[in-house]
Design goal:
By secondary structure, the chain is mainly alpha-helical. The relative contact order is 0.11. The longest helix is centred in the C-terminal third of the chain and has 87 residues. The radius of gyration is 41 Å and the shape is rod-shaped. It has two domains: 188 residues, Four Helix Bundle (Hemerythrin (Met), subunit A) (Up-down Bundle); 59 residues. Helix 1 packs antiparallel against helix 4, helix 2 packs antiparallel against helix 3 and helix 3 packs antiparallel against helix 4. The two termini are 38 Å apart.
Length: 267
Protein backbone atom coordinates (compact mmCIF):
# COMPACT_ATOMS: atom_id res chain seq x y z
CA UNK A 1 0.00 0.00 0.00
CA UNK A 2 1.32 3.44 -0.92
CA UNK A 3 2.31 5.67 2.02
CA UNK A 4 0.88 9.16 1.75
CA UNK A 5 2.86 12.10 3.03
CA UNK A 6 1.11 13.94 5.85
CA UNK A 7 1.94 17.66 5.83
CA UNK A 8 3.16 19.30 8.97
CA UNK A 9 0.91 21.78 10.84
CA UNK A 10 3.10 24.63 9.56
CA UNK A 11 2.33 23.75 5.93
CA UNK A 12 -1.12 22.28 6.43
CA UNK A 13 -4.10 24.16 5.03
CA UNK A 14 -6.39 22.48 7.54
CA UNK A 15 -8.22 25.16 9.57
CA UNK A 16 -8.06 23.14 12.76
CA UNK A 17 -4.29 22.75 12.38
CA UNK A 18 -3.90 26.49 11.85
CA UNK A 19 -5.87 27.32 14.97
CA UNK A 20 -3.95 24.75 17.02
CA UNK A 21 -0.68 26.21 15.77
CA UNK A 22 -1.70 29.79 16.60
CA UNK A 23 -2.92 28.88 20.09
CA UNK A 24 0.23 26.80 20.61
CA UNK A 25 2.39 29.84 19.89
CA UNK A 26 0.33 31.87 22.35
CA UNK A 27 0.57 29.16 25.01
CA UNK A 28 4.33 28.68 24.54
CA UNK A 29 4.90 32.42 24.78
CA UNK A 30 2.91 32.62 28.01
CA UNK A 31 4.73 29.63 29.51
CA UNK A 32 8.17 31.02 28.55
CA UNK A 33 7.39 34.50 29.89
CA UNK A 34 6.02 33.05 33.13
CA UNK A 35 9.00 30.69 33.49
CA UNK A 36 11.53 33.49 33.03
CA UNK A 37 9.60 35.71 35.45
CA UNK A 38 9.42 32.94 38.08
CA UNK A 39 13.13 32.21 37.62
CA UNK A 40 13.90 35.86 38.33
CA UNK A 41 11.66 35.85 41.40
CA UNK A 42 13.26 32.68 42.78
CA UNK A 43 16.72 34.05 42.08
CA UNK A 44 15.83 37.26 43.90
CA UNK A 45 14.65 35.20 46.89
CA UNK A 46 17.95 33.29 46.83
CA UNK A 47 19.92 36.56 46.69
CA UNK A 48 17.90 37.90 49.59
CA UNK A 49 18.73 34.81 51.66
CA UNK A 50 22.42 35.13 50.80
CA UNK A 51 22.36 38.83 51.70
CA UNK A 52 20.75 38.01 55.04
CA UNK A 53 23.49 35.47 55.84
CA UNK A 54 26.25 37.89 54.81
CA UNK A 55 24.69 40.71 56.83
CA UNK A 56 24.38 38.45 59.89
CA UNK A 57 28.01 37.41 59.53
CA UNK A 58 29.14 41.04 59.24
CA UNK A 59 27.07 41.95 62.29
CA UNK A 60 28.74 39.23 64.35
CA UNK A 61 32.18 40.24 63.09
CA UNK A 62 31.50 43.84 64.15
CA UNK A 63 30.29 42.66 67.58
CA UNK A 64 33.38 40.49 67.89
CA UNK A 65 35.66 43.41 67.09
CA UNK A 66 33.93 45.65 69.67
CA UNK A 67 34.12 42.99 72.38
CA UNK A 68 37.78 42.29 71.63
CA UNK A 69 38.58 45.98 72.03
CA UNK A 70 36.77 46.00 75.37
CA UNK A 71 38.64 42.84 76.36
CA UNK A 72 41.93 44.42 75.29
CA UNK A 73 41.27 47.56 77.34
CA UNK A 74 40.15 45.55 80.35
CA UNK A 75 43.29 43.41 80.22
CA UNK A 76 45.49 46.52 80.07
CA UNK A 77 43.67 48.09 83.01
CA UNK A 78 43.88 44.91 85.06
CA UNK A 79 47.58 45.32 85.59
CA UNK A 80 46.86 48.81 86.99
CA UNK A 81 43.80 48.15 89.10
CA UNK A 82 43.38 44.42 89.58
CA UNK A 83 40.26 43.31 91.40
CA UNK A 84 37.88 40.38 91.54
CA UNK A 85 35.22 42.50 89.81
CA UNK A 86 37.60 43.32 86.91
CA UNK A 87 38.48 39.64 86.60
CA UNK A 88 34.78 38.71 86.50
CA UNK A 89 34.18 41.26 83.74
CA UNK A 90 37.07 39.85 81.71
CA UNK A 91 35.74 36.31 82.20
CA UNK A 92 32.25 37.38 81.08
CA UNK A 93 33.68 39.12 78.00
CA UNK A 94 35.75 36.06 77.22
CA UNK A 95 32.62 33.86 77.27
CA UNK A 96 30.66 36.26 75.06
CA UNK A 97 33.52 36.38 72.55
CA UNK A 98 33.65 32.57 72.46
CA UNK A 99 29.87 32.37 71.97
CA UNK A 100 29.99 34.88 69.11
CA UNK A 101 32.85 32.99 67.46
CA UNK A 102 30.95 29.72 67.82
CA UNK A 103 27.83 31.25 66.24
CA UNK A 104 30.00 32.62 63.43
CA UNK A 105 31.42 29.16 62.77
CA UNK A 106 28.03 27.43 62.95
CA UNK A 107 26.20 29.63 60.44
CA UNK A 108 26.43 28.86 56.69
CA UNK A 109 29.85 30.07 55.48
CA UNK A 110 29.73 33.17 53.30
CA UNK A 111 33.28 34.43 53.75
CA UNK A 112 36.74 32.97 54.20
CA UNK A 113 36.13 29.97 56.45
CA UNK A 114 39.87 29.36 56.90
CA UNK A 115 40.30 32.91 58.20
CA UNK A 116 37.45 32.42 60.67
CA UNK A 117 39.10 29.22 61.91
CA UNK A 118 42.40 31.09 62.25
CA UNK A 119 40.67 33.80 64.33
CA UNK A 120 39.18 31.11 66.58
CA UNK A 121 42.65 29.61 67.10
CA UNK A 122 44.12 33.04 67.85
CA UNK A 123 41.32 33.67 70.36
CA UNK A 124 42.13 30.39 72.14
CA UNK A 125 45.78 31.43 72.39
CA UNK A 126 44.68 34.88 73.61
CA UNK A 127 42.55 33.35 76.38
CA UNK A 128 45.56 31.32 77.60
CA UNK A 129 47.77 34.41 77.46
CA UNK A 130 45.16 36.51 79.33
CA UNK A 131 45.00 33.88 82.03
CA UNK A 132 48.77 34.03 82.40
CA UNK A 133 48.68 37.85 82.61
CA UNK A 134 45.96 37.79 85.30
CA UNK A 135 47.84 35.13 87.29
CA UNK A 136 51.09 37.05 87.00
CA UNK A 137 49.45 40.34 88.10
CA UNK A 138 47.78 38.61 91.05
CA UNK A 139 51.11 37.06 91.98
CA UNK A 140 52.87 40.46 91.98
CA UNK A 141 50.03 42.10 93.91
CA UNK A 142 50.49 39.50 96.65
CA UNK A 143 54.13 40.56 97.12
CA UNK A 144 55.42 43.56 98.98
CA UNK A 145 56.10 46.62 96.83
CA UNK A 146 59.88 46.28 97.04
CA UNK A 147 59.68 42.61 95.99
CA UNK A 148 57.48 43.12 92.94
CA UNK A 149 58.90 42.45 89.47
CA UNK A 150 56.67 43.43 86.56
CA UNK A 151 58.97 42.34 83.72
CA UNK A 152 57.03 39.12 83.11
CA UNK A 153 53.71 40.99 83.04
CA UNK A 154 55.10 43.47 80.50
CA UNK A 155 56.44 40.66 78.34
CA UNK A 156 53.10 38.83 78.37
CA UNK A 157 51.21 42.08 77.75
CA UNK A 158 53.40 42.78 74.71
CA UNK A 159 52.58 39.33 73.32
CA UNK A 160 48.89 39.98 73.97
CA UNK A 161 49.08 43.33 72.14
CA UNK A 162 50.61 41.63 69.12
CA UNK A 163 47.92 38.95 69.17
CA UNK A 164 45.18 41.58 69.46
CA UNK A 165 46.65 43.47 66.48
CA UNK A 166 46.60 40.27 64.43
CA UNK A 167 42.97 39.63 65.40
CA UNK A 168 41.97 43.19 64.48
CA UNK A 169 43.68 42.86 61.10
CA UNK A 170 41.97 39.54 60.30
CA UNK A 171 38.58 40.85 61.42
CA UNK A 172 39.01 43.95 59.26
CA UNK A 173 39.83 41.71 56.28
CA UNK A 174 36.69 39.66 56.93
CA UNK A 175 34.54 42.75 57.38
CA UNK A 176 35.80 44.37 54.15
CA UNK A 177 35.23 41.16 52.20
CA UNK A 178 31.74 40.85 53.67
CA UNK A 179 30.83 44.42 52.73
CA UNK A 180 32.07 43.87 49.17
CA UNK A 181 30.09 40.63 48.95
CA UNK A 182 26.97 42.33 50.31
CA UNK A 183 27.35 45.18 47.81
CA UNK A 184 27.76 42.65 44.98
CA UNK A 185 24.58 40.82 46.04
CA UNK A 186 22.66 44.10 46.23
CA UNK A 187 23.85 45.10 42.75
CA UNK A 188 22.88 41.69 41.35
CA UNK A 189 19.48 41.85 43.04
CA UNK A 190 18.89 45.32 41.59
CA UNK A 191 19.82 44.07 38.11
CA UNK A 192 17.47 41.07 38.29
CA UNK A 193 14.70 43.26 39.73
CA UNK A 194 14.97 45.63 36.76
CA UNK A 195 15.07 42.66 34.38
CA UNK A 196 11.95 41.13 35.96
CA UNK A 197 10.18 44.50 35.79
CA UNK A 198 11.20 45.03 32.17
CA UNK A 199 10.06 41.50 31.31
CA UNK A 200 6.69 42.12 32.93
CA UNK A 201 6.24 45.45 31.16
CA UNK A 202 7.25 44.05 27.76
CA UNK A 203 5.21 40.85 28.17
CA UNK A 204 1.93 42.74 28.54
CA UNK A 205 1.95 44.43 25.08
CA UNK A 206 3.44 41.29 23.51
CA UNK A 207 0.68 39.15 24.98
CA UNK A 208 -1.96 41.68 23.88
CA UNK A 209 -0.48 41.72 20.38
CA UNK A 210 -0.59 37.92 20.16
CA UNK A 211 -4.12 37.85 21.56
CA UNK A 212 -5.23 40.43 18.97
CA UNK A 213 -3.49 38.42 16.24
CA UNK A 214 -5.36 35.29 17.33
CA UNK A 215 -8.64 37.22 17.41
CA UNK A 216 -7.97 38.65 13.92
CA UNK A 217 -7.15 35.21 12.52
CA UNK A 218 -10.33 33.74 14.00
CA UNK A 219 -12.35 36.66 12.67
CA UNK A 220 -10.80 36.58 9.19
CA UNK A 221 -10.55 32.81 8.76
CA UNK A 222 -13.76 31.66 10.45
CA UNK A 223 -16.24 34.42 11.24
CA UNK A 224 -16.18 36.22 7.89
CA UNK A 225 -16.36 33.03 5.77
CA UNK A 226 -19.24 31.67 7.87
CA UNK A 227 -21.02 35.00 7.59
CA UNK A 228 -20.48 34.86 3.82
CA UNK A 229 -21.96 31.34 3.69
CA UNK A 230 -24.93 32.45 5.78
CA UNK A 231 -25.50 35.41 3.43
CA UNK A 232 -25.28 33.04 0.45
CA UNK A 233 -27.94 30.82 2.06
CA UNK A 234 -30.23 33.83 2.49
CA UNK A 235 -29.60 34.91 -1.11
CA UNK A 236 -30.38 31.37 -2.27
CA UNK A 237 -33.66 31.43 -0.39
CA UNK A 238 -34.58 34.76 -1.97
CA UNK A 239 -33.42 33.51 -5.39
CA UNK A 240 -30.70 36.18 -5.58
CA UNK A 241 -27.73 33.86 -5.09
CA UNK A 242 -24.69 34.44 -7.29
CA UNK A 243 -22.35 31.37 -7.35
CA UNK A 244 -19.39 33.57 -8.19
CA UNK A 245 -19.65 35.11 -4.72
CA UNK A 246 -18.37 31.82 -3.21
CA UNK A 247 -15.58 31.18 -5.71
CA UNK A 248 -12.95 32.45 -3.29
CA UNK A 249 -14.21 30.28 -0.44
CA UNK A 250 -14.57 27.24 -2.72
CA UNK A 251 -10.88 27.45 -3.64
CA UNK A 252 -9.87 27.11 0.04
CA UNK A 253 -8.45 23.71 0.90
CA UNK A 254 -9.89 23.50 4.41
CA UNK A 255 -13.23 22.88 6.15
CA UNK A 256 -14.60 26.24 5.00
CA UNK A 257 -13.71 25.36 1.40
CA UNK A 258 -15.42 21.97 1.71
CA UNK A 259 -18.57 23.65 3.02
CA UNK A 260 -18.50 26.22 0.19
CA UNK A 261 -18.11 23.52 -2.50
CA UNK A 262 -20.90 21.42 -1.02
CA UNK A 263 -23.13 24.51 -0.88
CA UNK A 264 -22.41 25.23 -4.56
CA UNK A 265 -23.25 21.63 -5.46
CA UNK A 266 -26.55 21.86 -3.58
CA UNK A 267 -27.32 25.25 -5.12
Amino acid sequence: MENKFSPSPLKSKNLHARLVLVFSFLFVFCVLALSVFLFNVLHLISLNDQSRFVFEENRRIYQLEVMLKQYHLGLKNYSISSSSLAEMRLAALDRRIDETLLALQDQPPTGDLALIEAIASQKTALSVLAGQIIASVDEQDALDYEDQEWGEVERLSLQADQLFDLLYSDLETLRRAGLEQLQGLQDEAALFSMFAMALGILSIPAFLFLALAVAFIIYAQIHLPLEQLARAARDLQSRQFNPASLDGLARRDDEIGVMAREFLQMA
